[in-house]
Structures
1.
Amino acid sequence: MHVDSDDGVLEITFDRPDVRNAMDWAVAAELAETIDGADPEEHHAIVISGEGDAFSAGGDIEAMADSPGSPRESYEGVAETFGRVVEAMLSSPVPIVAKVRGDAVGAGLALVALADIAYAAEGASFSCAFVRIGLIPDTGGTFVLPRIVGLRAAKKLAFTGEVFDAERAADLELVNEAVPVEKLDERVRETVELLERRPTDVIGMTKQALHENMARHWREALDYENALQVQARGSESHEEGIAAFLEGREPEFNQ
C-alpha cells in the first residue's frame, strides 16, 4: 500500500493489483499503524481505496497457508494484524471514507463496513466470502455487519457468501451511495471537502459516542452522551461555531 498526506487528507491506497489488493498480515499491520497515526489536528479525513480493478479481495489466501500452525500463534497473529485494523478504524477520531472500485470481498467488505462513510462505483461487487474457504467473518465482520445491514441480512450474506452489486450494497446501507465510476472521485472529494468545513475534534467525539453507546442501556448511554457534550461545549470548535452563528458567517473550523 502507499500513503499520501496532502491538504489534510490521509490517502491510503492498496497497491497489490496482481492479487486484487489482497491483504497479508504485514499489509494489515501497516494499515492499522497508518490509521493510528492520523492526527485530527493535521488531518480532517482518511480515504481508503485500491489500485487496479479491486478495492480489496480480502485476506491473502496463499499467505494464510504459510501462517503459524498452532491455535495460539494463529490467534496472536490475527489479533495483532487484522484485529488491530478493526481497533484503529473504530477508534480513529479522524473520519474514514472508503472509495470502492471493483471487488470488496471478505476482509475487503469488512473494511467498507468499518469505514464511517463509503461510496462505491456502480461496477463494484461485494461478497462476505469467508464461508467459501471455511472461515467465519473476521476483521470485525461479525460485529459491524449486523449493525449496519441488520441481523437477518447479515446472516444471509455470511452463510451464503453471495456476490452482490453496488446498488444492492447501497440498499443494505453497506455503502452510502452507488455512483457512476466516472463520478466516484468527485463524490468522495465533495465529502472530504465538506468534512474539512466541519470540526474534526467534534466529529471524533460524535463517533466515539455512537460507537460506545451501541452496547449500553439507554440511561448509561445518556450519561455518556452528556459527558461528551460537556467536553464539546468547552472546545474551541464550539466557541467558533457560536461566534460564527451570532456574526452571520460560516464557521472556520480546523484552523
Note: The radius of gyration is 19 Å.
2.
Amino acid sequence: MVGVKNNRRAQYTQGIIQQTVLSLLESKPINAISVTEVCAQADVNRTTFYRYYTDIYDCVASIEKAFVTSLNPLEGATPTQALEHLLTAFYEDKKLSNLVFVEGKTKLLERMQALMRRNGPEPPLIDDYQGTYIGAGLQSILKKWVKDGMPETPRQLTQIIIDTILAKDLDDLRDQVL
C-alpha cells in the first residue's frame, strides 16, 4: 500500500540506502560520506533519503539498532557465551564490522553491552573506571580484529578478550615490575 511506512517498497529502499552506507564505510570514514554520494550510488533522490533519515549518522544508528535487535540473545548465557554469540553475529555480517571505526558516533558497542547485561547473569561488580577501561579495550580489540580481516574465529577472539580482561599470563610480568 502506498503511504504505509513499512511497506515492502519502503523497506527495500531503506535497505538499499543502508547497504550503500555500509559499502562506503569500507573505504572511507563516516564524516567523508555525503548524502549526495549515497543517493547517487543507491540510485535514490535526496528527498527519498530524507524521508527515512535525517543524515548519515541517523542511517548508521538505524543499522546498529536493527542489528542489535536481530541478535536474539541467549537466555541465561554466561558472559563468555553471550560475548561469543555477539561476535559470531558480527562475524557473519562483515560489512557491519566497519561500524566499529565510526569514532565517537556509534553506539554499537554500548548497545551490545546493554544487551549482554539484560540477558545474561548478573555481572561481577566493577566500578566506573574499570568499566571504562574494559569498554575501551574491547573496542580496540574489535578494531584490530576487523582491520586484520577477522582472522580469529569468534570463539578464539572471545578467549583472547577474556584472557586479556582477566590479565591471564601476566603474572610473570607483574613479578618483574613489582
Note: The chain has a mean pLDDT of 80.
